[in-house]
Amino acid sequence: IGESDFNNKRNASKHLLTYLEAKEITSTSQLTENTLDEYPVFAQKRSPLTVKNEIGFINGFFTWLKKRRLIAPDVAALRMTPVVRITGEDLQANPAINLEDWRIIYTEVHRRIKESKKNKRLHPSVYWWTTFYNYIMIMKNSGLRPGELRRLTWRDVTIIDAGQRSKSDERHHYIAELNVKRTKTGEPRQVPTKSGERFLDLQAFQQDYLDKYYGGLHQVNKDDLVFANYARCGGKVVSHHQYKKAWGEVRTKVANKLKGHWSSDHNYTLYSLRSSFIEDSLMDDVPVNLVAQMTGHDIKVLMKHYSQLDVRRRTLELAKLPIGQKKDDTKKVINLFD
Question: Is the pLDDT of residue 138 over 90?
Fold first, then answer.
């Protein structure tokens, strides 16, 4: 079980226990088909999607009790959990980020990196915000879930040099192919992304940091986590909670400048980066089956969540090369550990 699933089930268990205690239910023999009728009201401060997921977990728990005959037979034959209706607005709980808002967000992250650099003693802060910047950039360009991204190792990353950007721009365009092995669905998948340069910069930054502050005692290698925190966690990846906290700080700082998504009043979340990748890809006419394959989504679920798209935002195709660059079949794989 993944960290996210574990935390969700733990929270659902706490909420269920609180609810049952308030109703003075201490034994499974007291459960009836109406016990949870008031649960949606009890949980009204949480989003409908969260409540729906909690009830799904509770339903699984009740099924486990039924199989062991810990619920009265006449009750076990009945439906014991309420139905939570989800609206189109609820499905936009993690709205995609429009281009203007995205620029405001990553500019604020850049500002924090620059501020941290002014004080040499704040080098752990520089490391954190630089890592966070690359984390959100790569998530937005790959559509990976937070847990999938945090578990990624350098062995799972292949960098491809797609050649010179244009005749007038000698810089090269780098593509990254990600092998996502541990996924929510249990099915591994390959994800191409335009974030090759981000991976190259991040690896170089990590090694420079280790050389400068730890005397080069560790060399970044294939088995290291891509988002390892060498400044505070000894090479381990920080928790999803820390990433959520940092995202919340940034979002709060620029809240009055953000326009928000055209179809949702919800705040942007870390999962909005994944939503942005999906929505941008669909609006760029990337085939829906390919988007579903890259993101690990069921096609029907994908279309249900993203049936209303912002037709004002049509840009380049996902796999299209930068303006001015000609297609070149002679691509070179970059070995990160030569």
Answer: yes
Residue 312 confidence (pLDDT): 45
Give pairs for 18-21: CB < 8 Å, separation 24+: 19/43
Task: For 55-104, give the DSSP string.
Answer: HHHHHHHHHHHHHTT-S-HHHHTS--S------TTGGGSSPPPPHHHHHH
The angle formed by the CA atoms of residues 32, 36 and 42, to the nearest 5 degrees, is 150
Measured CA to CA in angstroms, residue 90 lies from 54, 147, 267, 324 at distances of 15, 22, 12, 41
Task: Give the Cα separation of 128 and 116 in Å (integer).
Answer: 10
What pLDDT digit, counting tens, does each position of 266-294 carry? 899 999 999 899 888 887 878 888 888 89
The pLDDT of residue 308 is: 58
Query: Which residues are within 8 A (CB) of 62 and not within 5 positions of it... i.e. 6 or more apart?
Result: 31, 71, 80, 81
The 3-state DSSP class for residue 153 equals strand
- Check residue 37 and report its DSSP letter: T
- Residue-wise pLDDT for 77-95, tens only, equals 878 888 766 554 445 678 8
Give the Å distances, CA to CA, from 3 to 142, 185, 239: 21, 14, 9
Single out the residue of 251, 277, 272 nearest to residue 93, CA to CA. Answer: 272
Place of tokens 């850049």: 110
Decide: 8 and 53 in contact? Cβ < 8 Å.
yes
Mean pLDDT of 84-107: 78
